[in-house]
Amino acid sequence: LKVLMDEIFGRDNFVGCCPVIVNRGGRDYGGIAKTHDYLLIYGKTLLTELYQIEDKDKKFQFSDENGGFNLMELRNRNIRFNKENRPNLYYPFYINPNNADENELLEISLESKNNFIELYPLKSQDIDTVWRWGKEKAEKFLNTQIKGKRKQDGGFMIVQKNRLSLKRQRSIWDNREFVNERGTEHIKQMLGRDSFSYPKSEFLLQRIIEISTNENDLVMDFFAGSGTTLAVAMKMKRQFIGIEQMDYIESITKERLKKVVSGEQGGISKAVDWQGGGSFIYAELMPLNAIYKERIKNINDEKMLDSIYKDLESKAFLDYRIDLDSILKDKEFKELDLKNKKEVLLNILDSNMDYVLYGDIEDEDYAISDETIELNRIFYGDCHDFANAKSRNDKKGK
What we know:
By secondary structure, the protein is an alpha+beta fold.
């Protein structure tokens, strides 16, 4: 999986591999009781930092009209992140050395000004380091959360006001709330039965989502399963897309999200003060070759097999290199047993056409309603022209 994800997301964007304790007792796999899963983390920017509120008695080194704070350098000292692979984090600040406040913090700008001193992130081991914040975020908090400061050697640096205690996520994720048992209990409580094997805990997904996204960001789960990621994303005010090919999406995943909209109080609901609300769209792909694949798989005698040949030839999409009529007349094919004949037929169906293409949505053969056509146009938006260009109508002689 690591090699595959390196290819997709880029090896330089790898942040870490974190063991997550999901079963404290362990599941026995041949002598070793497995207690953990692995979480692979990739990112183009650093993870959002986790903070915890300081005790009221905490003493800070500095203070302003908003209360006490300590200082934290804005430069990222980790040379893995540098000018070469994070060019968006390498830009200049301009410091006014003659305009200090009561804390001896200096005025800064992102634009060159008279008497201001230009400052880039320092080199470390002859490598240009970068800032922890991008320019857009820096502009938002300029001279409020970030300021300039004179160093003891006479140089300058950019610092961030830190009013809370910084708590970075550790490499081993060991929290009793993260175990799969919490997810199993939640599903059973919600749906009234043990309906899904090893569902993830909402608290684990909460931690993942809070260190990698902000409110209104888009969360994607390509293997939605019981819908834990989608439910947590909704409760944490994120948008989401979930995809699942198994039938339980209808009876489990969708039903769970309906309960979330209604304000169910399991999982992280109390922790995030979830009261319900929001909405989601549930849609299914319209099957094409998938229908015939399912029919072939369910055939249990030769007569049933004979009845499907005509439909395959006239309605299904076959591999363009295949002549079905020649196969059916072939002596070797006729001598195959039922199982192997079914295997041959499954292999000649074009898997790219398991479902109706968006570009074919107006094809009269599919008898798609005007309402469904309009919904798809709203949903896919500007994809329409691209999809039409990739339409397979030419295979049908249209």
